[in-house]
Design goal:
This protein is an all-alpha fold. Helix content is about 50%, strand content about 0%. The longest helix is centred in the middle third of the chain and has 23 residues. The termini are far apart.
Amino acid sequence: MAKVTISLDSDLAIEVMLLAGTRSPQDAVELIVRDYLARGRRTDARTGDAADQHLLDRPPTADEG
């Protein structure tokens, strides 16, 4: 896998390290990005995407409230 180098403000790097519970800023940022992407995938799985728009166009049934 290709690597990318990114510069961050030291205060931001420290906050990310504390949030992720790591001692390495690189590990912390990687964990945060992976979590962000996974969270986005879970949200898409729950709410669908633009291709699922037709499901929202129907009125709710009595069971759905």
